[in-house]
Amino acid sequence: MFERYEAGERAVLVHLNFSREGDREDLEELQLLVSSAGVDACGVVTGARSSPHPKYFCGAGKAEEIAALVQAEQADVVIFNHALSPAQERNLEALMKCRVLDRTGLILDIFAQRARTHEGKLQVELAQLRHLSTRLVRGWTHLERQKGGIGLRGPGETQLETDRRLLRERIKTILRRLEKVARQREQGRRSRARREIPTVSLVGYTNAGKSTLFNLVTDSGVYAADQLFATLDPTLRRIEIDQVGPAVLADTVGFIRHLPHDLVAAFKATLQETREADLLLHVVDAHDQRAVENIEEVHRVLQEIEADEIPQLLVYNKVDLLEEAVPRLDRDDQGRPIRVWMSAQANLGQEYLFEALSDLLSRQIVELSLKLPPAEQKWLNVFFELSAVQKSQYDEEGNCLLTVSLPESEWRRQVKASEGRLEHFIIQ
């Protein structure tokens, strides 16, 4: 039994091209992921197969080639740009005498490095434990024996069974804590919904520039870097939009091809901000040659988290890196904004983004002038609670002259509550 190595600084990368479109990955993206994890790639092995090899994933000959390169380069870890089964990982580690990591394990490692908040760390640990639970037996066959000796004789539970039980208990503990976090987030969302404050959520492929855009719009200091998964913890900030008033902008984790299901499940509370948003700002790296593929991948993830029905505004970022593109706002045949071209890094086109936000969110907003007689001024408190009052003053007769701005659905709700009386107080 070889000594298990921890993931180190030097890695051999393995990338296979498969004939099936759904099995293909991107080598350049793997290199970006490895760079984001702080690992130095000392060699790359590529190949082509029609389907994965059941024992080694890459085939026996290719596995020997990788093992020889590991030996020559004194690599600490082999990283596959694919999802490996626990048995394949075990077989590869036995052959190569070093740690073997698949794409999911690599992404989980990056997430573990990036997590800053208590919630983020819990979510990452949950995803890691779920991933680990299927791999406990790998490399630890000696733990399948029952414990023996004085003080260790018990009901016959093996060390492996003990580990699995402890793992299940830890997962249950984390789920309870995340449920508490989810309830707190839900209270915040309900509070915003009562005041009819719209929520705008940034979504997009990882490294599209969401956090840079977020910092530009909100004047925040959220960590932004040219690396995959720079943002992990969701951040909410209040912004002011013309003709709409206050709104909440949410910066969320970026998406990636074949995002591990363990991560999607673990980050349910985070992704809830996206599912409950009134508008999604889909940020696209306009300079990326795979922009169209990335857009499709984001749509797939949105479908998976049931957020694909929410209205979207495409924000083509990094136009300063394109030769002929200029900041602008594209509209459809009905005059509705559909695309914004801008650069968050160079601060170009921000005005077009706010124009689009104002247009899209204000379409649901009504602005009314009311004249409330003294006997009906209880409605003044209602409108203040809804943060809908734009201006208020009194005339000589004690009537309150009020200008309110609120979503049409909320106005209809108040009219119904007043049994239609509010409509009589509208000043034409």
Written overview of the protein:
This protein has 428 residues and is of the alpha/beta class. The chain folds into three domains: 10-101, GTPase HflX, N-terminal domain (Rossmann fold, 3-Layer(aba) Sandwich), CATH 3.40.50; 197-361, Rossmann fold (3-Layer(aba) Sandwich), CATH 3.40.50; 365-427, Alpha-Beta Plaits (2-Layer Sandwich), CATH 3.30.70. 39% of the residues lie in helices and 21% in strands. It has helices spanning 27-36, 60-73, 86-96, 103-114, 118-133, 159-194, 210-218, 261-266, 268-275, 291-304, 350-362, 378-385, 408-417, and strands at residues 10-18, 40-49, 77-80, 99-101, 199-204, 235-241, 245-251, 279-285, 312-317, 328-331, 337-341, 365-372, 389-394, 400-407. Strands 6-7-5-8-9-11-10 form a seven-stranded mixed β-sheet, sandwiched between helices. Strands 2-1-3-4 form a four-stranded parallel β-sheet, sandwiched between helices. A three-stranded antiparallel β-sheet has the order 12-14-13. Strand 13 (389-394) and strand 14 (400-407) form a beta hairpin. Helix 5 (118-133) runs antiparallel to helix 6 (159-194). It is elongated. The model is unreliable at 1-7 and 138-154 (pLDDT under 50).
Task: Please give a quick description of this structure.
This protein has helices at residues 27-36, 60-73, 86-96, 103-114, 118-133, 159-194, 210-218, 261-266, 268-275, 291-304, 350-362, 378-385, 408-417; strands at 10-18, 40-49, 77-80, 99-101, 199-204, 235-241, 245-251, 279-285, 312-317, 328-331, 337-341, 365-372, 389-394, 400-407.
